[in-house]
Design brief:
Elements (H helix, E strand, L loop, with lengths): L5 H18 L9 H19 L9 H9 L2 H14 L7 H25 L2 H6 L7 H25 L16 H5 L2 H24 L4 H6 L1 H35 L6 H15 L4 H13 L9 H4 L7 H7 L2 H9 L8 H7 L20 H15 L11 H11 L6 H14 L26
Helix pairs in contact: 1-5, 1-7, 2-3, 2-4, 3-4, 3-5, 3-9, 4-5, 5-7, 7-9, 12-13, 12-18, 12-20, 13-17, 16-17, 17-18, 18-19
């Protein structure tokens, strides 16, 4: 938003005007001011805690409870007050806070209007289940749709990345962020809506607002656990990224190779129908398969000429070095076996242990195909990149002796269907070495 175009500023002004119009009937509506103040304070406090990393995601249950309990103008006031008191991480903070308040105000107004139009207020007061779910579901759909439309509009009009969709913090590429905003946000907002409905029903019950606040306790615990999971996942990603960057710095000719092998391994795993968790592990395996190069002398990794037998034996130790480095990282799972065995061959002539056929872990067989494919389609110090069809033909030729035919067939299918566009990783200004390794899996 730092350099928001004029048309985007006009768009923001229109949304702010719409939010202001939602507040106009406030004086004529019977507004319980203490409830407005309490809900606004709860929402602002929840956003403060979320901003400090304690929870994951925005704090919508209180807003939706306000939409179920209060007249539309009062529900809008809850959103405006709460959003204006909430923290904003990026500059310009004033403009971002104003946009956030207006966006939520319009969304809550739409949710409250739909809920009241479907007689949701009577259902909440009477605790009429399951009928109360119908107006609440309509309100959640309206709330989610309005936020998605407003986010899509600002992303389409702004240059760069305005507020991330549906209250997420940070920058999001515009085109990608606009895709599926409604579908991606519907499930979490529906969960928030259910919690808001429970709050509203307990609020109207003989137990009063104190009982309604108890609904937030299990929600806060679940958000905390979810936030812990995401922080742990981010730490894992940072660990892997640091290791890969160290390899890229040491072996400049293969810069980007690890990420591409991870991508190809993930494509093979998905083509084979593996579950998402295992696909992620195999992506890690592909990314980290060459981490053992950190234990190989740099002069050997950057040597332009052919390797001597002694130098080749030193380089062939890198799977064992890599396994020692990642052995204690528990979250990698079977990726550790892939790091150790990705240079084994089905015919038993590979290294480091000369395993045969099914003795080679499946993860290693996946990474072996992805590794050789990227090696053949990337320019190196000792060879030029092959065309993708030629690389696939070479893999098929070596299937059964060197590579697992299932993995090769899966890669061929997915590449023919989705394509492959590898980047040139070698310094093309340097002349190629006079000799080329005889086996496609031997690459530095």
């Amino acid at each position: 938003m730092e350099a928001l175009p004029a048309r985007a500023r006009v768009y923001v002004a229109c949304v702010v005007l719409g939010a202001a119009l939602g507040l106009l009937p406030l004086s004529s509506a019977r507004t319980p001011w203490w409830a407005v103040a309490l809900l606004a304070a709860l929402y602002a406090a929840g956003e403060q805690v979320a901003a400090r990393g304690r929870f994951a995601g925005p704090f919508y249950p209180v807003l939706l409870a306000g939409a179920f309990l209060l007249p539309p103008p009062a529900a809008v006031l809850v959103a405006v007050l709460g959003a204006l008191l909430s923290p904003v991480g990026q500059r310009p903070r004033r403009l971002r806070r104003l946009w956030r308040a207006a966006q939520l105000a319009v969304g809550v107004w739409a949710a409250s209007r739909v809920h009241w139009a479907l007689d949701g207020r009577d259902a909440v007061v009477a605790s009429d289940f399951p009928y109360a779910l119908v107006p609440a579901g309509g309100a959640v759909l309206a709330f989610c749709l309005v936020l998605a439309v407003l986010d899509g509009g600002i992303l389409a009009l702004a240059v760069g990345a305005p507020p991330a969709p549906l209250g997420q913090r940070g920058r999001v590429p515009g085109r990608r962020a606009r895709r599926g905003l409604f579908a991606r946000s519907l499930a979490p907002v529906a969960v928030h809506g259910l919690a808001g409905l429970m709050m509203a029903v307990l609020w109207r019950s003989p137990y009063g607002p104190v009982a309604a606040l108890l609904v937030l306790l299990p929600m806060c615990v679940s958000w905390w656990v979810f936030g812990q999971y995401h922080r742990e996942r981010a730490a894992h990603q940072a660990t892997i990224r640091a290791l890969v960057q160290a390899v890229d710095i040491k072996d400049g000719y293969t810069r980007g190779h690890s990420e591409r092998v991870g991508q190809a391994s993930m494509m093979i795993a998905r083509e084979l129908g593996m579950d998402d968790e295992r696909v992620e592990v195999l992506r890690f395996a592909g990314i980290l398969h060459d981490v053992g190069k950190l234990g190989v002398p740099t002069r050997l990794l950057r040597k332009d000429g052919p390797l001597t037998p002694e130098e080749r034996r030193v380089i062939e130790l890198h799977p064992e070095y890599g396994h020692e480095m990642v052995r204690g990282i528990s979250f990698l799972g079977e990726a550790r076996a892939a790091v150790l065995h990705h240079h084994e061959r089905l015919d038993g002539t590979g290294y480091p242990y000369g395993l045969l056929g099914g003795q080679i872990p499946e993860s290693a067989r996946v990474v072996a195909v992805a590794d050789a494919f990227d090696a053949m389609t990337s320019t190196r110090s000792y060879s030029r990149a092959r065309p993708v069809p030629a690389a696939l033909q070479e893999l098929e030729r070596c299937a059964g002796a060197q590579f697992d035919p299932r993995m090769v067939a899966a890669l061929v299918r997915v590449v023919q269907r989705c394509g492959w566009h590898p980047a040139v990783t070698a310094d093309e200004a340097r002349p190629p070495a006079p000799a080329v390794p005889s086996r496609p899996e031997v690459h530095r």
